[in-house]
């Protein structure tokens, strides 16, 4: 049996956990990451990962600060500069990077690419990668936590961070509860190649069944997002690709033009929010703390805001000779993030419920709202700045 002592053990080496580990290692914390599988090596000729994240400007800035972004750029990413959303063609809202004086609103990045870049950066910065491994037991002990792993290894940490996703074992084993519900809709992601270059505009068309979205990737590659009832998404997912292509051509806006579908994968939409983010020597980040309706692609960006806040709190406390793993210090992180995440969750829910209601008066009001938003100038720019974390 091996016995290891660390300042911080991060459970979960995904896009959020790995970024946190890189930031902690940069600040000379002794860090370990527990992850069930090493991400696959990047192959230039590979088809794009079906899972795509819209990485906003502030998240890109964090990844640059961590030394990760140059590696992402040498692999694959695609800038997007415009965002358009509409239900009626006459009530369209457009956001443009130029209106904020930015070169782009953000980047579309394949999850597999970002995770691989982060993994390579963890190796460079001396993070201890305990992989493949899973958490079997979590127990408080004097001065921190004891983590028992499935390979009979035991790890000790002053601070444990749960970055292990929506079904977080850290959250469950530490007894932190959640509030949440499942939405009436599910979501289908579809990888396509378009007849023309995908461009730099992402768009979303609201329909009575749910939104249809287009995410531009590199060259002619793009990702389509289809929201609908869980039964309809299951039906679409079971179709052969030629049949799915016909359904897409029928139900997506004509501006999609000609395309070929290559792969599709569905997932349910669930909202969860932890009743608290911290305990003595323990913190939750990203989806372990909060999941959000993916309508505006804010999930991973909220996770990166969590990381920014937690890194600030820990480094400030340590430089002031405080007990940086204490609940008193960790509550500062919770205070910085919990209300902001709740506000974003509630905002997305308001948007979701408003646009999934078929009552004619509400349909008129929401489209009037889009027209007002399009012409609101300063307010529109402020909303965009908030969504980008600026």
SSE diagram, text form:
Blueprint lengths: L2 E9 L3 H12 L4 E4 L17 E5 H9 L3 H6 L3 E3 L1 E5 L5 E5 L9 E5 H14 L3 E3 L4 E7 L2 E6 L4 E9 L6 H5 L4 E17 L6 E5 L6 E5 L4 E9 H8 L3 H11 L7 E16 L3 E2 L2 E3 L5 E2 L7 H21 L7 H29 L4 H15 L3 H11 L2
Parallel strand pairs: 1-2, 1-11, 2-8, 5-13, 11-18
Antiparallel strand pairs: 3-7, 4-7, 5-6, 9-10, 10-11, 12-15, 12-16, 13-14, 14-15, 16-19, 17-18
Helix pairs in contact: 1-4, 1-8, 8-9
Kindly report how far apart the N and C termini lie. Answer: 47 Å
Ranges where pLDDT stays below 50 over 5 or more residues in a row are 359-380, 386-390
Query: What is the share of helical residues?
Result: 25-40%
Order of helices and strands: EHEEHHEEEEHEEEEHEEEEHHEEEEHHHH
Output the structural class.
Answer: alpha+beta
Largest sheet: 8 strands, mixed
Output the number of helix runs.
11
Mean pLDDT: 88
Using the CA coordinates, give the radius of gyration. 21 Å
Global shape: globular
* Number of E-state strands: 19
Q: How large a portion of the residues is in β-strands, by DSSP E?
A: 25-35%
Fold and architecture overview:
With 390 residues, this protein is α+β, with helices and mostly antiparallel strands. The chain has helices at 15-26, 57-65, 69-74, 111-124, 169-173, 230-237, 241-251, 299-319, 327-355, 360-374, 378-388; strands at residues 3-11, 31-34, 52-56, 78-80, 82-86, 92-96, 106-110, 128-130, 135-141, 144-149, 154-162, 178-194, 201-205, 212-216, 221-229, 259-274, 278-279, 282-284, 290-291. The strands form 3 sheets. Strands 1, 2, 8, 9, 10, 11, 17 and 18 form an 8-stranded mixed sheet that branches. Strand 17 (278-279) and strand 18 form a beta hairpin. Helix 1 (15-26) packs parallel to helix 4 (111-124), helix 1 (15-26) runs parallel beside helix 8 and helix 8 (299-319) runs antiparallel to helix 9 (327-355).
């Amino acid at each position: 049996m091996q016995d290891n002592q660390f300042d911080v053990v991060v459970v979960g080496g995904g896009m959020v956990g790995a970024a946190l580990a890189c930031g902690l290692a940069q600040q000379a914390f002794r860090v370990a990451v527990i992850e069930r599988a090493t991400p696959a090596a990047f192959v230039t000729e590979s088809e794009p990962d079906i899972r795509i994240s819209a990485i906003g400007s502030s998240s890109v800035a964090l990844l640059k600060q961590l030394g990760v972004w140059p590696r992402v750029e040498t692999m694959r990413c695609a800038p997007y500069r415009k965002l358009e959303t509409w239900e009626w063609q006459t009530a369209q809202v457009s956001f443009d990077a130029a209106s904020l004086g930015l070169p782009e609103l953000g980047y579309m990045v394949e999850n597999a690419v970002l995770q691989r870049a982060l993994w390579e950066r963890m190796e460079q910065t001396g993070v201890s990668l305990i992989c493949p491994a899973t958490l079997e037991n979590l127990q408080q002990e004097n001065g921190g936590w004891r983590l028992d792993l499935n390979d009979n290894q035991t790890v000790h940490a002053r601070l444990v961070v749960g970055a292990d996703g929506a079904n977080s074992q850290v959250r469950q084993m530490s007894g932190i509860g959640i509030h949440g519900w499942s939405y009436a809709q599910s979501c289908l992601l579809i990888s396509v190649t378009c007849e023309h270059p995908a461009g730099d505009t992402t768009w979303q068309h609201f329909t009575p069944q749910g939104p249809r979205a287009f995410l531009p990737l590199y060259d002619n590659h793009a990702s389509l997002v289809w929201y609908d009832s869980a039964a309809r998404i299951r039906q679409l997912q079971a179709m052969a690709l030629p049949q799915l292509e016909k359904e897409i051509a029928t139900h997506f806006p004509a501006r999609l033009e000609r395309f070929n579908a290559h792969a599709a994968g569905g997932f349910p939409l669930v909202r969860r929010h932890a009743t608290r983010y911290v305990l003595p020597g323990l913190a939750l980040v990203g989806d372990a703390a909060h999941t959000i309706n993916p309508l505006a692609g804010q999930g991973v960006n909220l996770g990166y805001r969590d990381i920014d806040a937690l890194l600030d709190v820990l480094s400030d406390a340590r430089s002031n000779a405080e007990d940086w793993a204490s609940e008193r210090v960790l509550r500062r992180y919770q205070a910085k993030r919990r209300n902001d995440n709740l506000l974003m969750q509630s905002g997305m829910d308001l948007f979701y419920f408003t646009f999934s209601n078929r009552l004619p008066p509400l349909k008129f009001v929401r489209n009037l709202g889009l027209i007002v938003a399009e012409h609101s100038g300063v307010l529109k720019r402020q909303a965009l700045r908030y969504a980008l974390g600026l």
